[in-house]
Amino acid sequence: MRLTIVALAVSLLATGCGQAVEGTPVASPDDERKAGNKAYETALGVMRQYVKDAKDFRGSLFFYAAVNERKSGSDVEIARKGDPPALVSRRKSKTPPGFDYDVYQPAGDPLEYVRLGPKYVPQIVPTQWASMPAVPYSGFPCAITGIQTLCKIMDALDTTTEAAPPGLGRAAVRLNDGATEVRTEITLKSFVDNSVITIPADVVALIEPDMMGRLIPVKIVVNADGTLRKAEVRGEVAGRGGKVQVEVGYEARGPAEASDFPPLPAPAEVTALPDKTARDEFWTKMANAR
Description:
Blueprint: E1 4-5, H1 29-52, E2 57-67, E3 70-81, E4 86-95, E5 101-105, E6 111-116, E7 129-133, H2 147-163, E8 171-174, E9 180-187, H3 188-193, H4 201-204, E10 215-222, E11 228-238, E12 243-252, E13 270-272, H5 276-289
Helix pairs in contact: 1-2
């Protein structure tokens, strides 16, 4: 796709002293920097508004992290609709495969339901589904699956801005469909510290300290109508004895529909977990199984 540099703040300087010369004006580095910063602040505002309005939406997430030979990755589809809300997330594991699961909380139901993939049954529970007391929704948007990832990306951007690492840049390009793609970076340290992807402490310990200050590319795409299309972090940092690769992003896919939410399973298909203790043990087993 052909990209055109966004330099909307730059005007033709063909008036005044001297003779006008035909050709394409070239934006000065200062003008490009100002245009990039302005587009960046606009994109952050669009992300914040999306989070604030996260009541009826559908989105797609992807996660992948590799530290040396330790790898993990998933794709997640999410949807939320109604008040009180129905919320569903469908997680498909890429690395390693087979560790898939869905989490569904019907609107107004005190229980949430988890459908387990083939690597979890019957090791975790003997049935394909488990039910458990739902965690009460706090009303805090950043606690919602998917929206939480956007919040963590924004936190990492803010942390990087505060640190002001050398070489940090911001630029924007206009896509052919009128959308604006904002390009910037975050440090690996801000990525890890803000748990953009949660990396276990023993894996973080494998990262060489000198690598933490390195920059990872970030893209935010704002539609021509000023709404969020996607935000993503993709990059690789190489050290003396290993490397870190991270890929994470969220794509907005419009409002949720009734067809996004599954029917409740039959009672015979469900293992009922009675309380918070049982629920916590269940999720600990799920984590350990991977």
